[in-house]
Amino acid sequence: MPYAINDEQQNVTYVNPAFVATFGYSREDIPTLQKWWPRAYPDPEYRNWVATEWQSRLERARANGAPFEAFEVRIRAKDGTERFAQVGAVSLDGAFRGVHVVVLLDITERKRAEETRLGLERQVQHSQKLESLGVLAGGIAHDFNNLLMAILGNADVALAHLPADSAARMSIQAIQASARRASDVANQMLAYAGKGKLLLAPLSLNDLVSEMSQLLEVAISKKVTLGCNFEPGLPRFEGDATQVRQVIMNLITNASEAIGDDAGLVTLATGTMQCDRAYLEGPMIVRDQLQNAALREGTYVFLSVADSGCGMTDVTLRRIFEPFFTTKFTGRGLGLSALLGIVRGHAGAIEICSEVGRGTTVRVLFPSTSVVDAAPITAVRTPKAEVVGRPMILFADDEESIRNAVRLMLEHIGFDVVLAANGREAIDVFREREREIAAVILDLTMPVLDGERAFRELRAIRPDVKVILSSGYTSLEVSRRFATGGLAGFLKKPFDTDELESMLTNTLQIRRS
Cα(407)–Cα(402) distance, rounded to whole angstroms? Predict the structure, then answer.
């Protein structure tokens, strides 16, 4: 155990070999405690605290005849490394008035292990926090879209029955426009939760950025210069062009705002890189908090946006992907958290590096070959005779307001309707009226029997039944549950009368005049 011997004037008369081995200081390096302290505790404020603690505990031990109260300190070793020690003292005369032994128990490894444990606990807590927020955001978006379905459905039908010169048409159209904007907010929450709607196709990152060049120039401050550096011949990646454009615009706008009113430079670059496990788990990669699957090693296409702006503190860096967090004025929405959700939905990653006063660089990586969990939902096409008359549609949803709204929509566009409040009721109705029912529209989440299980039972009754699924979630979420296919289509809530009519017309191959 490392220790040193002091005389009554605090001169160090001896240090043992363990002290030299642990901290690197020999007897010659420590003539007195006061002269050693500036080397062991280079920060003046911390050094004063150590000196005060040492003296006060020494005086208490002298006054009370009690043992010296040990305390914990950080010590800079002779080689410059930081170590931790528990400092205690033992008096050889029992009163701390003469020679005493200063004992320094090295607890460096224990402290580092504790810090590692606490760091992991903080990561787990942060992950659980973001996961809970993701579940909350997805659930709110789903319920919000259900409410909007009833609003838009009824507004659509009301508008269709109003005469062209009605003064109420403008008010109803305003209701429709506001409801659709509200749906955009719900979709942004779904993007944060990693459940945003993805229309995947092979994309060229260079082409996407080039197409947006004029728009990007307009999006940044006039005092900011936009520089571009494209790597030619980039491999393609599977992505949703609309959402990737949103990522690009978001990053460029943030970079320009970081520069503020000053002149500055934003550099946009593309390229490819090989990412191994060590890199993907490195300290600069934003952890995929809401999706437990590890990032795949291999070739990634990247988009890099660097600015010469103000940079970010460590505190800000830890919070920038939290929903609604902003260093600007309030009311900015989900911001970077929605961007993270989009990248997560593409099985990609975000790398971020920032330093106060020296700017920020954000790199978004997309895997150059995407592995799609399930094929997108496509309509099942089988040769059938054209449907005549008023086909009957079975519509199942547990929300009465949605059932009533969709019933009005279906009747307006020329269908007969039979309703069910849950999946089990839908199965019972279908068994009774199988010959009359041309197609079934099922809500995904219903009590008693949900849309997924109801779909399986309907197919068991009649394998060629036309089933359209409807949900406040997205087709991506649905496709994960219906990887084997068989659905006739998918209606994302809220949908309007035109979308409903188009889906049924295509599904049933109805010729409209």
Answer: 8
Structure confidence by residue, pLDDT tens digits, 325-345: 666 644 444 567 777 777 877
Question: Which tens digit of pLDDT belongs to each residue from 241-288?
Answer: 877 888 888 888 888 888 888 888 999 999 998 888 888 877 667 654
Cis preceding-peptide flag for 447 (omega within 30 of 0): no
Q: In this structure, what token pair is assigned to residue 411?
A: 């009747």
End-to-end Cα spacing for the chain: 95
Decide: residue 134, CB within 10 A, 0-12 exposed, 13-18 middle, 19+ buried: buried
- Distance set, CA 435 to CA 46, 145, 488 (Å): 85, 33, 18
The tokens of 115 are what?
Answer: 């810090």
H/E element, 250: helix 241-259
- Statement: residue 130 has pLDDT above 70: no
DSSP-derived secondary structure letter, 183: H
Query: Alpha-carbon distance 285 to 344, whole Å?
Result: 12
- Tell me which residue has tokens 């305003």: 174
Residue 266 CA to residue 259 CA, distance in Å, equals 9
Question: No. of H helices and E strands in the chain?
Answer: 16, 17
CA angle 105, 107, 112 (to 5 degrees): 170
pLDDT, position 411:
92
Work out the burial of residue 323: count CB atoms within 10 Å of its CB; fewer than 13 is exposed, 13-18 middle, 19 or more buried.
buried
Residue 499: count other Cβ atoms within 10 Å of its Cβ. 15
Cα–Cα distances (Å) from 354 to 7, 64, 66, 178, 411, in that order, read: 51, 53, 52, 38, 58
* pLDDT higher than threshold 90 for residue 393: yes
- The whole-model pTM stands at 0.48
